[in-house]
Structures are given as C-alpha cells and as structure tokens.
Design brief:
The protein has 456 residues and is of the alpha+beta class. It has four helices and 27 strands. Strand 1 and strand 2 form a beta hairpin.
C-alpha cells in the first residue's frame, strides 16, 4: 500500500482525508476495527461524531480502493496439487512486521515477526487456508513477504493482495490474479474384445473427449458413451467407452482429450495375436506412423501396468533400462525397429503386451496378445521319464516271465530226475526183494528136502 496514511490523499479533486480518518484506517488495518466506531465518537465533538464516524469508514474504504487501483495487477498461473508462490516485497525496518494476505475479504494468512508491539488485535485465516500457507520466515524482516500457498485447487483461483505493517509505515501490494490449471497429463486406453475405453483424471478446466479411427470411419459407426465427473475440489475426471463393430475392427483407434490448457491424443493399434512355443523365442513389434520421431519415451509392458523395459530417446541417443524380473526373458537389444525379443516364456507369461511410445502431445500404443503353447520342455522330460518307467516295467515283466519259465523248466527237470531216481531205486529195491524172496524160497525148499530125508 502506498503511503496513504502518511500523506494526504485527494478525494474527488477537492476534499482531503482528515487526520481522524487516517488514524481510523490505520487502526482498522492493525486489527482493532471493532473499536473504530467508538474511537471516532470520542475523538470528534458531539453531535456530529456519529456522522463523521461513518464518513471515516467510507473514506477509509475509498483509500483502500484508490491504493489498490494505483498498483499494477499481474497474473500468476499454477497447476493443481502444486505449491504456488505469490510474491510480495516491502520496506522493512528490520525490527518487526505484521504480514497479512487477503483474497477479497477473506483472510488467507496473518503472521507477526520480530517486535510487533505496535500491532493491536489479530485476524485468523479462513478455515480453508489453515495449514496450507507459509512465508519465508528468515527473509521477512529483510522485506520479503512472499506467500506459499500449498496444494492449490480450482477453489483457490481469484485476486490476492498483501498488506505489510511496520512501526513507521503500512504498505499494500498490487493485485495478484491467481489462475489454476490442470492440464491433461495422461490418457489411459484399454482394449477388450468388444470395447475400447479411454480415460483421463485430474483436469481443470472441464475437458472434452473425441473418438476417431485410422483409416477414417463414419461418425455414425462410432458408438461411444462419455461420462464427466467433477469432484469436491473442482477437478474433473472423464471416461468414455467405444463399442466396437465389425465395420471398425482392425483400425487404429484414436482418443483425444483436451481443455483450455492443452490436449493429449492416444493412438491404439491392436495387432494380430502371436503364438509362442514354450521356452522358445518370440518378437513383438511396435506400430507407429511413418513420421520419424527424434525424441520419445518407449515402454514395453505386460498386462495393465507391469513394466518390462524402458527406453528414453533424445535426439536419436537412447538409454535402455530392463526391469530385474524380466532380465532372464529379454533377449537381444531393445529398440523401436527390432521390437522386443522374449525367450524362455512359460504359460504364466500368456497375456497382452503393450508397446507405449510417448511424446509431449501424443502416445502410440501397440497391443499384442501372446499365447504360449503349453508343451514346454519339462513336459517332454516327464513324458520321457514315464516312457522309460513303462519300458522298465515291461522289461521287468518280460524278464520275470522268462525267469519264471526257466524256474518252471528247472523244477520240471529236477522233478523228472527225482522221479527217475526214485524209479531206479524202486527197481533196484524190487530186484533185491525178489532175489531175497527167491533165496528164501530156495532155502525153504532145501530145508524141506533135508527134513524129509531125515524122516525117512
């Protein structure tokens, strides 16, 4: 604020601000405005005191308006969810200062530094600013009253000004018009068999979303449904679903999201599915327009959000980073022209792979579905082992049969031999018995003959 309280200000070209009005305005800014009417009534003679008091208030308001309009107004632009800096400088005596920031009539910040015994009263900031403001405390007594407004939202848009008070003077800054922007930062596009979905979040002011295809498609065939949501902070989210018809399958789908700040366009190309042999190699390529890109970011992804490799290209100089969990599966060099070469894939790697090429205004997404043949080498090993076990079992059975047959033949041979021996023994025994019987018979005959001769 200019030195309106130390010099006389011309009002309507003729009248000048009286000393009582000057004192009243100073007291108003120092926080004792509740006692202003009483003070004016006692400093001026009755019965004109009441009328002059009201005149003093009006004159004080005029002084504030005049001082504000005499200062330059400038604009500061900040993005949503960031910390915004509102500059303010003043002449400091290095002893003490009271710093007050306003947005229209609302108190944004009220702080004191050093010796402020000259200040009476205190104004508290509005609830929505509590805990969101700060000053550079070590620089205030050097004349820096710059305000830091934290985590700004669209509700913070408006006109701000700073009032600084020191023992010898009171100053007011020019008007700062704060503009809040929420640019379109990211646009997410997802693909399913029948629907393509496009979404963006954290945008201000309100965005618009449009669909198109390459090659171009009749607008009547682009059946989409778009929803826009504004949250309590005044920030917008937008989402749209495009229903796929047979007439636009195989096209490149283009989704554009824009507002007054910027625009972002995403190109989605769905390539033919790729069949990969288990533990073999497969190469996945990117589909981009013919225009050469000098600088861009390329990200290979698996599923919705799992990064495989990242490549940053600046003026044809590239830097590649492969994620640790994918180092075993990435073969060869990662590049735009050579694509992504993968090896040793298992059935768990079946799914969609995306090549995402990003520039400041455009994003190109190539979507490829990869199918893994579920006949990996370990299954072959299992089959070989099973075959060997079956062969071993068959060999055991055959060999067992042969052994049993040999045993049977051996037993039969042994039995035949035993039978033969038994027969021979029986024959020998029979012969001996017969001989013995014959001998016994002969002896009996001889004995009978001898007895007969004796009787005679």
């Amino acid at each position: 604020m200019h030195q309106s309280f130390k010099r006389e200000v011309e009002i309507s070209g003729k009248r000048k601000c009286c000393p009582a009005a000057q004192t009243s305005c100073t007291r108003l800014l120092s926080g004792s405005e509740t006692d202003l009417m009483t003070e004016l009534k006692f400093t001026l003679p009755s019965p004109m005191s009441t009328m002059v008091a009201h005149t003093g208030l009006l004159l004080c308001s005029l002084l504030l308006i005049v001082s504000a309009t005499e200062k330059n107004e400038f604009t500061i632009t900040c993005q949503t969810s960031t910390d915004c800096v509102l500059p303010c400088r003043f002449q400091s005596d290095g002893k003490g200062a009271r710093i007050m920031w306003y947005k229209k009539k609302a108190v944004v910040s009220c702080t004191r530094y050093g010796n402020t015994s000259f200040v009476v009263g205190h104004n508290s900031p509005a609830d929505k600013y509590r805990g969101r403001t700060g000053l550079f405390a070590d620089q205030v007594l050097e004349g820096n009253a710059t305000l830091v407004l934290k985590n700004v939202t669209p509700h913070d848009e408006g006109r701000y000004f700073c009032i600084t008070m020191t023992a010898p003077r009171t100053d007011e800054s020019g008007i700062i018009a704060l503009v809040i922007e929420g640019p379109v930062r990211e646009v997410d596009v997802e693909f399913s068999e029948k629907v393509v979905t496009c979404a963006a979040e954290g945008i201000y002011p309100a965005p618009t979303l449009t669909w198109s295809t390459d090659p171009p498609t009749d607008v009547q065939l682009l059946k989409s449904k778009t929803n826009t949501h504004k949250n309590k902070l005044g920030i917008y989210d937008i989402q749209s679903s495009l229903k796929l018809t047979t007439n636009i399958r195989g096209h490149t789908y283009i989704c554009s999201v824009a507002n007054d700040v910027n625009n972002k366009t995403v190109f989605l190309k769905h390539e033919d599915s790729v069949v990969a042999p288990g533990y073999g190699r497969v190469t996945i390529f990117c589909s981009l327009p013919y225009t050469a890109l000098q600088s861009y970011n390329l990200t290979w992804m698996f599923g919705r959000s799992e990064a495989i490799a990242l490549m940053r290209v600046v003026d044809e100089n590239s830097q590649v980073e492969i994620q640790d969990q994918w180092r075993h599966y990435v073969a060869g060099n990662v590049s735009f022209l050579d694509g992504l070469q993968l090896q040793s894939l298992t059935p768990e790697h079946k799914g969609n792979y995306k090549c995402v090429v990003s520039t400041p205004e455009k994003t190109y997404i190539t979507w490829t579905d990869v199918t893994i043949i579920e006949e990996p080498i370990q299954y072959t090993y299992i089959f070989i082992i099973i075959g060997l076990l079956i062969l071993l079992c068959l060999s055991y059975v055959v060999f067992g049969c042969k052994i049993r047959r040999l045993n049977r033949v051996r037993e039969e041979s042994t039995e035949a031999i035993m039978n033969l021996r038994t027969k021979e023994e029986n024959d020998i025994w029979g012969t001996n018995v017969a001989d013995a019987a014959n001998a016994t018979g002969a002896a009996d005959t001889a004995h009978a003959e001898n007895a007969k001769e004796g009787d005679e």
